[in-house]
Amino acid sequence: LDNAPQAEAVTALRSEMQRSAGVDVEVMAPSSADAVTVADARLIVTVGSPAAHAAVALGTDAPLLHILLSRRTLDALPHRPDGAPWSALLLDQPAQRQVALIRLALPEQARIATIASPETTALVDALEAAATDHGLGARSAVVLDTPSLYPALRSVLEQPAVLVTTPDSRVFNSHTVHHVLLTAFRLGAPVLGYSAAYVRAGAVLGLYTTPAQAGMEAAALVQRVLSGGGLPPPGHHALFEVGVNPTVARSLGIQLPHADTLTRALHAQEERRP
């Protein structure tokens, strides 16, 4: 496995399958998978981008379930043979969920701000639509390279707003994260991050599905297939966590509810939604 999150997801998947169904899960590295070794597989679960690409390249008709993928990565995968079933649990959080969290945690905020590369403007469109649904304004900018990121940040944060980061590696990555967070902090803008790492680095809020949660949800779909059911369409995770950074919040003069309180409230909202 390539990294700790992937290992965590696989551990959760294997533990849940053993606990609930008494089924052992065989784990293979993308480099060692071939059409012969997976010929009799009833379902292949890929964990992360390299595994997803390797599994699609095999050309097998076995059902595929992709986890630990963003929508952008999923859309870039080659097409499967006609009729070969597949699905995915996406790491991207639904726009409605993100904006609902902002309304719960930061009710005094009147708008959101977003930045994207040309490839991920659909994420921005969804966030702007969700903001409108919740009575919030929205400002956005499209950037082509890192030098244009910081002027764009100052532009969208010219008026008070919550900066919503997205899993767009051209915009938000390990080389830009600290500058983005520092710029937002200096402008008095709270940041909603898409990972626990973003919260640790200085985002006021985070909304994300943990690798362990991804593995547990994948196990439920595996059991569904093994019981004779089909795979659902690709979609978002039902499990998620809210993270908060009270230190940064206090520095911005923000009083935040506890993370568990926000997580429960957000789940309750979604359960009430038709």
**Number of H/I helices:** 11
Helix percentage range? 40-55%
Strand order of the largest sheet: 5-4-6-7-8-10
Terminal-residue CA separation: 39 Å
Number of strands: 10
What order do the helices and strands follow? HEHEHEHEHEHEHEHEHEEHH
- Portion in strands: 15-25%
Outline:
This protein is an alpha/beta fold and 274 residues long.
How is this fold's topology laid out?
Layout lengths: L3 H18 L22 E4 L1 H10 L5 E6 L1 H5 L10 E5 L4 H11 L5 E6 L4 H13 L3 E6 L6 H8 L5 E3 L12 H10 L4 E3 L2 H6 L3 E4 L2 H16 L8 E2 L4 E4 L1 H6 L7 H14 L2
Parallel strand pairs: 1-2, 2-3, 3-9, 4-5, 4-6, 6-7, 7-8
Antiparallel strand pairs: 8-10
Describe what you observe in this structure.
The protein has about 270 residues and is α/β, with parallel strands linked by helices. It contains 11 helices and 10 strands. The protein has helices spanning about 5-20, 50-60, 70-75, 95-105, 120-135, 150-155, 175-185, 195-200, 210-225, 245-250, 260-270, and strands spanning about 45, 65-70, 85-90, 110-115, 135-140, 160-165, 190-195, 205-210, 235, 240-245. The strands form 2 sheets. The chain has a 6-stranded mixed beta sheet with strand order 5-4-6-7-8-10, sandwiched between helices. Helix 3 links the parallel strand 2 and strand 3 (about 85-90). Helix 1 (about 5-20) packs across helix 9 (about 210-225), helix 4 (about 95-105) crosses helix 5 and helix 4 (about 95-105) packs across helix 11. The chain is globular and about 60 Å long. The two termini are about 40 Å apart.
